[in-house]
Amino acid sequence: DVKVTQSSRYLVKRTGEKVFLECVQDMDHENMFWYRQDPGLGLRLIYFSYDVKMKEKGDIPEGYSVSREKKERFSLILESASTNQTSMYLCARLPREAFFGQGTRLTVV
Amino acid sequence: AQKITQTQPGMFVQEKEAVTLDCTYDTSDQSYGLFWYKQPSSGEMIFLIYQGSYDEQNATEGRYSLNFQKARKSANLVISASQLGDSAMYFCAMRDSLLAGTALIFGKGTTLSVSS
């Protein structure tokens, strides 16, 4: 089975903290994605990457950055966490259909 | 720009009945892929079915089929013989071509409730 692993299932952080969400895939696929999911809004694309050190902005990149130093790892960074970034964050990798991690429910207080 | 529209926030169906979840899309590309995902209350995203824009036959996977009407730009999911375990959120998604560097975008989802 394909595995996409997100480092934390639940996370609570304080406003202003720098937050790292890690995602690791066990295949050698180029494309990796970060989404956030909010009720009534579906999944919105934050950033994606199609190769090491390559990144593309999605629909809502403000307040986020990403890092892809190795093909298997794609990190989402909240430079200064704010309460409006409280959400479910989903990482995915895809050659064709997306395989998702289990999600990280981040609460910023 | 790509866009996915799911107009049904919630659907209710009884066990063993068939149900259709609507999805329309907008793209200017000729080559694209359409996907459906299921998200149960546990939160995991489960891939259900894929349809390529050049596929002549409607995709089927077990009890799931995709009613693809290219001219109408619709890609409805049909679930035959609903089961209680089908209760979940369902997302339609699209990707322009399947090349590296293209994004997968999602609709807002439809919540399906199956009752006995």
Characterization of this structure:
The complex is a heterodimer of chains A (109) and B (116). With 109 residues, chain A is an all-beta fold. Helices cover 0% and strands 52% of the residues of chain A. Chain A is globular and about 35 Å long. The model of chain A has no long low-confidence stretch (mean pLDDT 91). In chain B, a hairpin with a 2-residue loop joins strand 7 (60-61) and strand 8. The radius of gyration of chain B is 14 Å and the shape is globular. In chain B, the strands form three sheets. In chain B, strands 2, 5, 6, 10, 11 and 12 form a six-stranded mixed sheet that branches. In chain B, strands 3-9-8-7 form a four-stranded antiparallel sheet, with no helix packed on it. In chain B, strands 1-4 form a two-stranded antiparallel sheet. Chain B is built from no helices and twelve strands. The A-B interface holds A 30-31, 33, 35, 40-45, 48, 50-51, 56, 58-59, 88, 90, 92, 94-100, 102-103, 105 and B 6, 9, 33, 35, 37, 43-45, 47, 50, 91, 93, 98, 100-101, 103-109.
Main attributes?
heterodimer; A: 109 residues; mainly beta; seven-stranded mixed sheet; three-stranded antiparallel sheet; 12 strands; B: 116 residues; six-stranded mixed sheet; four-stranded antiparallel sheet; globular
Sheet having the most strands of chain B = 6 strands, mixed
What composes the largest sheet of chain A?
7 strands, mixed
Q: Helicity of chain B, in percent?
A: under 10%
Identify low-pLDDT runs of chain B: none
* Overall pLDDT metric of chain A: 91
Mean pLDDT of chain B equals 92
- Shape descriptor of chain B: globular
Strand content of chain A: over 45%
Rough outline of chain A: globular
Counted beta strands of chain A? 12
Helix content estimate of chain A? under 10%
End-to-end gap of chain A: 36 Å
Radius of gyration of chain B, rounded? 14 Å
Rg result of chain A: 13 Å
